[in-house]
Amino acid sequence: MTDQPTEPNVSAVRDAARPPVADRAAFQTELDRLRAREKAHTREGDAIAAARRRLPMVEVAAYGSTPSWPVSVVTSAADRLPPCLR
């Protein structure tokens, strides 16, 4: 058997999770770089949402058909609404 403990060194694990200590200028540089990435991410998401809104629309028929009879979309949706919203 070895003399090494089976449990990891808690201090080493805790220290590995901490970010390095830096001066204010280095912090500000990294913060500015991160903000630029965040803004680019937000703009890309906005562009995707705008493209989704520009998609062509498809007309939906007011009546759907069931094996027995035609059913109004409004009627079939109203059956699932809670009583206070009918």
Provide a compact summary of the structure.
The protein has 86 residues and is mostly helical.
Q: Can you walk through the features of this model?
A:
The chain has 86 residues and is mainly alpha-helical. The protein has a domain of 58 residues. Helices cover 50% and strands 7% of the residues. It has three helices and two strands; from the N terminus they run ααββα. The protein has a two-stranded antiparallel ribbon with strand order 1-2. A hairpin with a 4-residue loop joins β1 and β2. The longest helix is centred in the middle third of the chain and has 30 residues. It starts with 9 loop residues before the first helix and ends in an 8-residue tail after the last helix.
Strand content: 5-15%
What kind of sheet is the major sheet? 2 strands, antiparallel
What would you report as the Rg, rounded to the nearest angstrom?
Answer: 30 Å
Q: Encode the helix/strand succession as letters.
A: HHEEH
Calculate the mean pLDDT score and round it.
Answer: 79
Q: Which residues sit in consecutive blocks of at least 5 with pLDDT less than 50? A: none
Helix and strand composition category: mainly alpha
| Beginning-to-end CA distance, first to last residue | 74 Å
Query: Biggest sheet: strands side by side, in what order?
Result: 1-2
Assign an overall shape. elongated
How many β strands by DSSP?
2
| Helix percent band | 40-55%
User: How many DSSP H or I helices?
Assistant: 3
Features of this protein?
two-stranded antiparallel sheet; elongated; 86 residues; 3 helices; 7% strand; mainly alpha
